[in-house]
Amino acid sequence: MYPGTFAETTPDKPAAIMAGSGDTLTFKQLDDRSNQLAQLLWAAGLRRGDHVAIFMENRLEYFVCYWAAVRSGLYITAINRYLQADESSYIINDSGSQALFTSAAMAELVRDIPGLSPGLSVLLSVGGGVDGFDDFDAAVDAHPAEKLATQPRGEAMLYSSGTTGQPKGIKRPLADIEIDDPSGMSGVTLLLTGLFGATADATYLSPAPLYHSAPLGFTTSFQSMGATVVVMERFDAADALRYLEQYEITHSQWVPTMFSRMLKLQDDERSGYDWSKHQMAIHAAAPCPVEVKKQMFDLWGPIIYEYYAGTEVNGFVFCTPEDWLSHPGTVGKSILGPIHICDELGDVLPTGESGTIYFEREEMPFEYHNDPEKTRGAQHPDHPTWSTLGDVGYLDDEGYLFLTDRKAFMIIAGGVNIYPQEIEDCLIMHPKVADVAVFGVPNPDLGEEVKAVVQPEAGIEQTPELAQELLAYAAEHIARYKVPRTLDFRDELPRLPTGKLYKRLLRDEYWAGHDTKLL
Predict the structure, then answer these.
(1) Which one-letter DSSP state was computed for residue 347?
(2) Which residues lie across from 18 on neighbouring strands?
């Protein structure tokens, strides 16, 4: 199914609503506008397998661009809207994108892109206001709202976050089917209907940026089944709780930092709402501190589901509320092939021991665009159909997976492996801590020592006394060797609205001038 189906059956039903403004895009409008944009791209010479890019804030036109590409057999790359011109140009050039969709709000970031990305032939800006770009609405209006003669199904090609060097496109082959072929139902749509009980009657709240894989995949999959999506312009903890009631949300998706910020609201900001329609809150993207999740169960009840997966879709681990309550801290069990936990040599480790997480599939489900070396690096040395996202964890006796941390951020202090996630989970529970990052810094004797960088809550002074208070708090809750040797403060940590923390940017400051291991 796709929006064209519902343009005929429920034309006036909202396909998307902007939560703050209430601006609405119906299924008929989405179908017409995406048809017109598809006609524009065809007229510009783009054909099946070509690439387009979108560099835009959350707004209704995001969905017009997405569905125009996907109903034209194109790859669409959503670019992190916080990247600078040279960073976004790298992605545009690497993907081979021939069209770029942006907005007037992004004017300062996109003015230099055409000169940096010479392969672009279509440049459109919503709201005009960008030198060298055509006005989106005027350009689209010039084309008929008719379907293309053929509508081969396209695909998103998103890029890794680039925490370990240049980002790389995660490319899957295009299915040789039309957009309305039922056999082409996306894996996300199958998960939503099969695991999350979603139907056309659902109303889905998306509080995160659409350029991220999960928000883009979930919103468009809900639309493909005829459901309404409500998109927040930007995340605000108090607003999010209010929108759950205002829009009678049935399904939602979050990251753990959003949970932490909602829990730190005043009691009167978290009470008095009717959330009876809220059937399922889904979370992913990062491990959730056990105490944070316990408190969210207290707030919303046993409706919180979790999954662990990557944009690569090489594996999928699922956790029901019952699973988590009986195995606190787990991210669930694999529902997409076996999991193997391996050491540095690739040997499978016993149950309960931490190592690199590999997913086994019948064939390698993805490749990194223009980077066969990185693709090989994600594969097990002896089993090419086993692949990893670079995370570390362990399995218990019942097959439940527990995440330990990212392999790249493991600290080796005097030969002892220390995983920052456990320390971060501890410190974030302190009432004076708004955000925290833990990583290794140089130590002449140990090689590395544990460093914590903390963003205090608003109004809390960054004093030596506070640092000692936080270190003492850590010493009460975790083993002494894991307690940070030192603790620094920042007004704000480099965390994106997706919940992704660019820890490398902090770590690089402390490693400048030193030999480093893999960053």
Answers:
(1) P
(2) 231
pTM of the predicted structure, to 2 decimals: 0.83
Same domain flag for 397 and 417:
no
* Residues 397 and 431 occupy one common structural domain: no
The Cα–Cα gap between 498 and 21 comes to 21
Instruction: Read off the tokens for 233.
Output: 């312009």
Q: Indicate the angle between helix axes 213-224 and 187-194, nearest 10 degrees.
A: 70
Is beta strand 339-342 parallel, antiparallel or unpaired with respect to 355-360? antiparallel
Segment 464-501, tens digit of pLDDT: 999 999 999 999 988 888 999 999 999 999 886 666 77
Q: Which two tokens stand for residue 514?
A: 């030193």
pLDDT tens-place string over residues 105-136: 999 999 999 999 999 999 999 998 899 999 99
CATH number at residue 336: 2.30.38.10
Residue with tokens 């995160």: 208
Burial class (CB in 10 A: 0-12, 13-18, 19+), 415: exposed
- Separation between Cα atoms, residue 253 and residue 152, nearest integer Å: 30
113 with 70, same domain: the answer is yes
Contact 439, 451 (CB under 8 A): yes
- For 36, 112, 269, 409, the CA distances from 97, given in Å and listed in that order, are 19, 16, 45, 33
Helix (H, G, I), strand (E, B) or coil at 238: helix
Q: Are 399 and 333 in contact (CB under 8 A)?
A: yes
CA 66 to chain centroid: 17
Q: Report the alpha-carbon distance of residue 73 to residue 426 in Å, rounded.
A: 47
Which residue intervals of 204-289 are DSSP H helices? 213-224, 237-246, 256-263
Range of the domain at 24: 3-161+175-224
Report the candidate in 53, 209, 206, 38 with the shortest Cα–Cα distance to residue 119: 53
Of the candidates 458, 449, 468, 422, the one whose C-alpha atom is nearest the C-alpha of residue 511 is 449
* Cβ neighbours around 185 below 10 Å, total: 15
399 and 480 together in one domain: no
Q: CA distances (Å), 338 to each of 46, 187, 239, 315, 380, in order?
A: 40, 18, 40, 9, 14
In which residue ranges of the chain is pLDDT below 70?
Answer: 161-165, 184, 407-408, 415, 496-499, 513-519
- Which residues lie below 8 Å from residue 183, measured CB to CB, with a gap of 6+? 177
